[in-house]
Amino acid sequence: AKQDGRSIYRFFTPEMQARSGRHMELVNALRYALDREQLHVVYQPQISLNSGRVIGTEALLRWTHPELGTVSPAEFIPVAEETGLILSIGEWVLRTAAIQTQAWHEHGWTDLSVAVNLSAIQFRHTDLPGTVSQILRESHLDAPFLELELTEGVAMIDPLGAIAVMNDLHDRGVRMSIDDFGTGYSSLSYLKKFKVSKLKIDQSFVRDIHSDPEDKAIVSAVISMAKSLGLQTIAEGVETAEQLLFLREQFCDEVQGYHFARPLTASQFEQFMNDWQT
Ligand code: C2E
Ligand code: CA
Ligand code: CA
Ligand code: CA
Predict the structure, then answer these.
(1) Which of 92, 111, 78 is nearest to 35 (CA)?
(2) What is the pTM of this model?
(3) Rounded to the nearest whole angstrom, what is the distance from the C-alpha of residue 185 to the centroid of ligand 3?
(4) Is 146 within 8 Å of 114 (Cβ atoms)?
(5) DSSP bridge partners of 62
(6) DSSP letter string, 56-81
(7) What are 199's strand-pairing partners?
């Protein structure tokens, strides 16, 4: 019995208990996060290297809980996915981002598009194209100003199903991009079948551009491959002038990162736009 007791402790260490306690806490708290208005969306500017203009934002989710404090999306998105809460949360992000972007259009910033991250769960388990169309109707945002950021994972379980959904969204005028490009696997063979318009070069490749010749080679190869396939490119995680210079030299289309701005609240973004233009 003693032996058993020990092995139980071995398999369930205090650390693991703490971790699962935290996990349960997140599961329970996340259920109420939306209703209790603890979630909000921040917007990170995306800049065209060709025109120097701010041509869009990426909508990023934030969660502030009264006791847990700020919980990072890297921690709570997986919880939202395993509980299915990502369906209602994801729809709320889409609606919030569409309404906000339409308001900016009406303010006169008519170039702005908005990129919304989509979980593979949302892609598989709902009538996504129908939901997206309804949100566009409600918000009066024109479809081409909505961009969905998908990861290579959306096609992993059911490639044909994923392609059908992409075709449907594409036919409705919504644009799609592949997020974290280069970090997943097998995307190359699907690239020509995917109705995506943009590749988003992962920040892990951008980070060490100046010091790592291999990352440099990968970034430049992705850009030239994208060009020959007729796809746009955006680099994320651009933090330094050196990275920016290299991306410019490679004719990357767009950039996003702390070098320009962190993800901003709607009113901070408005301030950023006013400063950018003058
Ligand atoms: P992601 O889609 O790859 O988003 C980029 C992440 O990089 C964001 O982290 C952003 O704040 C951060 N970032 C932007 N510029 C820089 C930079 O110059 N340097 C560095 N080091 N980081 C930068 P965040 O907001 O913490 O989001 C993390 C991940 O959570 C996202 O990665 C995305 O996968 C997920 N996520 C965020 N919001 C949503 C959402 O609404 N729905 C879904 N499904 N996932 C989301
Ligand atoms: Ca993203
Ligand atoms: Ca990314
Ligand atoms: Ca990521």
Answers:
(1) 92
(2) 0.93
(3) 15
(4) yes
(5) 40
(6) EEEEEEEEEETTTEEE-HHHHHHHHH
(7) 178, 233
Distance CA 153, CA 179 (A): 10
Ligand nearest to the CA of 237: 1
Residue bearing tokens 């408005």:
270
pLDDT 10s digit of each residue in the chain, 278 long? 445 544 455 556 666 666 678 899 999 999 999 999 999 999 999 999 999 999 999 999 999 999 999 999 999 999 999 999 999 999 999 999 999 999 999 999 999 999 999 999 999 887 999 999 999 999 999 999 999 999 988 888 888 899 999 999 999 999 999 999 988 765 677 788 888 999 999 999 999 999 999 999 999 999 999 999 999 999 999 999 999 999 999 999 999 999 999 999 999 999 999 999 76
- Say what the ipTM of the complex is: 0.97
Q: What is the 3-state secondary structure (H, E, C) of 132-170?
A: HHHHHHHHCCCHHHEEEEECHHHHCCCHHHHHHHHHHHH
| Burial class of residue 124, CB neighbours in 10 A (0-12, 13-18, 19+) | middle
CA distance 278 to 69: 36
Q: Is 254 in the pocket of ligand 1 (CB under 6 A)?
A: no
Instruction: Tell which atom from ligand 1 comes closest to the C-alpha of 42.
Output: 25
What are 110's two structure tokens?
A: 């008519």
Q: Whose CA is nearest to atom 45 of ligand 1?
A: 117
